[in-house]
């Protein structure tokens, strides 16, 4: 039986180098899908590139840890900026949930304005939508819009999926870091096959290096990811395992 594989590139709109890398990995490799940061510095460039690359499915990368929000968030921002202190606030159970709900709606509306379409799916920068207090909010929002959602079922806390919410059976963030290689990518697929899962999303971050990417904690491995994801031998190995490349439209 054919299995569905979604190769999703996060961080579309972060920088022009990121955008060009994602487009290259789509046109010449395995990337079928991406998720856009609507508050990213290069989001307008990403939207223009997307119009010339209709084969690339575009979802929304909900942002609560980077840059400026689209709406006033005095309870979450510091000097008007978002940041990684969100996890400490979650541990203290002091998240401003009304602000987060409003910002989700604003980013969704901004996505539609930019791309003239609804997102194919939702996920989030630094996986913030999997924070226990935030997950039910985003899941219900996705269900209400009829939009699929990335769900990391390896997170060690119980959560309920709203009935009718679309997602893949499995999600992997393992294709990441200094160990990026064809062997690592295939290991992720083989592990999913061993669990007899019929649909899998693999997260990736292919990019060309520019000044923005050079300032990122995750820099040169993005080039390595691009090399792996445009490998002909990897494409053959995936097909040989019975995987069909697709998008969240197929879920």
UniProtKB/TrEMBL annotation:
Pfam families: YdjC
GO MF terms held by the record: chitin disaccharide deacetylase activity; deacetylase activity; metal ion binding
Pathway the protein acts in: Glycan degradation; chitin degradation
GO biological process, one term: diacetylchitobiose catabolic process
EC numbers: 3.5.1.105
Major subcellular site: cytoplasm
Keyword Metal-binding: yes
Domain of life (superkingdom): Bacteria
Binding sites annotated in the UniProt record for Mg(2+): 61, 125
Keyword entries, A-Z: Carbohydrate metabolism, Chitin degradation, Cytoplasm, Hydrolase, Magnesium, Metal-binding, Polysaccharide degradation
Catalytic activity: N,N'-diacetylchitobiose + H2O = N-acetyl-beta-D-glucosaminyl-(1->4)-D-glucosamine + acetate; diacetylchitobiose-6'-phosphate + H2O = N'-monoacetylchitobiose-6'-phosphate + acetate
InterPro entries cross-referenced by the UniProt entry: COD_ChbG_bac, Glyco_hydro/deAcase_b/a-brl, YdjC-like
Compartments in which it is found: Cytoplasm
Cofactor field: Mg(2+)
One Gene Ontology cellular component annotation held by this UniProt entry: cytoplasm
SUPFAM superfamilies tied to this protein: Glycoside hydrolase/deacetylase
Keyword Nucleotide-binding listed: no
Main function: Involved in the degradation of chitin. ChbG is essential for growth on the acetylated chitooligosaccharides chitobiose and chitotriose but is dispensable for growth on cellobiose and chitosan dimer, the deacetylated form of chitobiose. Deacetylation of chitobiose-6-P and chitotriose-6-P is necessary for both the activation of the chb promoter by the regulatory protein ChbR and the hydrolysis of phosphorylated beta-glucosides by the phospho-beta-glucosidase ChbF.
Subunit structure: Homodimer.
Protein family per UniProt: Belongs to the YdjC deacetylase family. ChbG subfamily.
HAMAP family: COD (MF_01246)
Name of the protein this chain belongs to: Chitooligosaccharide deacetylase
Species name: Kluyvera ascorbata
This protein's encoding gene: chbG
